[in-house]
Amino acid sequence: MIIMKGRALRATATAAMLAVFGAPVAAEELFYVSGAVGNAVENFKALVKPWEEATGNTVTMVPMPASTTDQFGQYRLWLAAGAADIDLYQTDVIWAPQLADHFVDLTEVAKDLAPTHFPSIIESQTVNGKLVALPIFTDAPALYYRTDLLEKHGKTPPQTWAELTETAQFIQDAERAEGNADLWGFVWQGNAYEGLTCNALEWVKSFGGGQIVETDGTISINNPNAVEALETVKGWVGTISPGGVLAYQEEEARGVWQTGNAVFMRNWPYAYGLGNGDDSAVKGKFAVTTLPIGKDGDTSAATLGGWNVAVSKYSTKQDAAISLAMYLAGPEAQKQRAINESNLPTIVALYDDADIAAAQPIIPQWKDVFLNAVPRPSAPTLGKYNEVSAKFWSAVHSTLSGEGSAAENLELLEVELTDLKGSGW
Amino acid sequence: MATNTGGLSLSQQRQRAAFWFLAPMLAALFFVAAWPLLRTIWFSLTNTLLSDLYGGEFIGFDNYLSLRVLESGRWIWRGTLVDPAWWNAVWNTVRFAFVSVLFETVLGLIVALVLNAEFKGRGFVRAAILIPWAIPTIVSAKMWAWMLNDQFGIINDILLSLGLIDQKIAWTASVDTAMYAVLMVDIWKTTPFMALLILAGLQMVPRDIYEAAKLDGVNPVKVFFKITLPLIRPALAVAIIFRMLDALRIFDLVYVLTPNSAATKTMSVISRENMIDFDKFAYGAAQSTLLFAIIAVFVSLYIWLGKVDLSGEGQK
Prior knowledge:
The complex is a heterodimer. Helix content of chain A is 46%, strand content 12%. Chain A is an alpha/beta fold. Chain A has 2 domains: 2-132 and 306-371, Periplasmic binding protein-like II (D-Maltodextrin-Binding Protein, domain 2, 3-Layer(aba) Sandwich); 142-303 and 377-421, 3-Layer(aba) Sandwich (D-Maltodextrin-Binding Protein, domain 2), CATH 3.40.190. Chain A starts with a helix and ends with a helix. In chain B, 66% of the residues lie in helices and 3% in strands. In chain B, strands 1-2 form a two-stranded antiparallel ribbon. The radius of gyration of chain B is 25 Å and the shape is globular. Chain A binds chain B through residues 67, 69-70, 72-73, 76-77, 79-80, 98, 101-102, 182, 190-193, 242-248, 252, 255-256, 261, 383, 386-387, 390, 393-394, 397-398, 401-403, 419, and chain B through 50-51, 53, 76, 78, 149-152, 168-170, 172-175, 258-262, 272-273, 276-280.
């Protein structure tokens, strides 16, 4: 039944695309570069198949390391060299201001498609009136928790970080006493890279400590709430979180979680679909909720993530590349991504889609989570964002690994950021 | 021929011929070594950005050191030479280079002595011991990263079951152990290289000296320190220079095993980070230039202090 439905869907999609993009002209071979987590490569092949059939072009995905920091370094190098080898880049939501010059302006071709997306996301990809990239999915992390373990120990999902600490410690101790020696309370991303900036921004923001650099460009990070947030997290390392969490990125955290060795995990929506896969030890035993808050009166914070597709200015096959970008950002591809990979769509209407709600019940609930998501300070800090982020994650990483207190490190960070800012971002 | 070379002595003719034989190599060296080096030094004196490689303007030594007077009247020194992150990287690199080269030399010497002895299957063992050196660094670094993983790594598993540790160690994450992890992998990887170079030196030592020492009943320890070591000293010195050059520009291992960790960030890593990640191409070029200068100073000091003979004159 499902197969039948899939075929029918694909046939309609193909017909629709033939109408939109016209009949195949000349077969082009495109190269699409993207970071790869989970089953990204196989999923991408399935995702672009209808487009390949409709246009006669082929596309090869060039997989990159999962770390966005590593990807960015490589992309910047290729783009600076004007490399024509890659036609499309999958770009992080924070990159648009830094790479804008190297991509084709999509404003004109996407004038009908763009308004169907969330306006804030389109705005994040618009630099000086130029639409640099088209959104293909958005991301906002959540707290994953083990329903079976919470139920067994009579606990409820935590509302505050203090509750999370207490619940995680309680279950970890109880389970270890029963012989479950590898169980940890909470896993997250503590490696010194962009992901730590995301995690730490959530802690700071949910303790009422601002968002590092505010939208008007003021540096706000050195404040008592931020200090309290980091000191709280420092208390987790080696107690409810393994010491190695300071080297974890998304996939390492998911590794511990999906083998059934964590009570809580902070991760992006992609882990939801994978966690319910047939080879997962936690299939059907977990649920997600919003990330906890510092204390009453604070609001939960989820860092706005998300990925976009941009067409390289140096591509020799721009027409085909733009057609693929439009397809990937369009409703068919986004729907398929939502169903197969639990990626959050950026097209508003898809949150009311019955098929998505049936396949991935969490997605409709997610709309509110990410509407309240916190952006990283990439807009106010412009081309200096990477350095701001690297200084922030270094200060956080030092604090968490016991090199200086949170107060000392944040004070130092404020000085460094002020120096970096100079007379203006 | 006679008309072309008329008036030139035989030695002048030979020099001229030698020049033309050397010319292709000199040209190749200029293009692959001297030109990039000069380019880098030039970039370090400009304000070039990676996103605009040809738009840089000459700014003198500002990337190295510059003085800014703020509106409040406060003086601020800026530039690589007052950048604590840079000096941290220099210290990490020097520490790494000394410790790794020391261990690799001692272990390499031991391995070479063993391989120099006659035993059955020596050829096979010699080939087998080279395997770590033959594996590309990226591959071995990734392999070790998995083995050192705190939760599912085999190293922790072995140590736990042997009872040597009572809880899993986060090798690459913890500031205290990150450098040890990098050192361990580098020593594992490069000891075979040192062993091979030293073995070549050992095989140059004439056998009859050992036989004479044996007839005189000299104690083997004394044989090693009085005969073997002095005779292989030139080979050892060259091997150490090679390793030192390599160790001071260590990049790939650190980049894969512990990227972004301040405890292991080396000069090459930080210069790449500035050039690529932070778009400060000229600033990174200044750090690369300093890296070159530091290596040059180290090697000159070593050759001078150790009286290493690289010209080959002493062999005559």
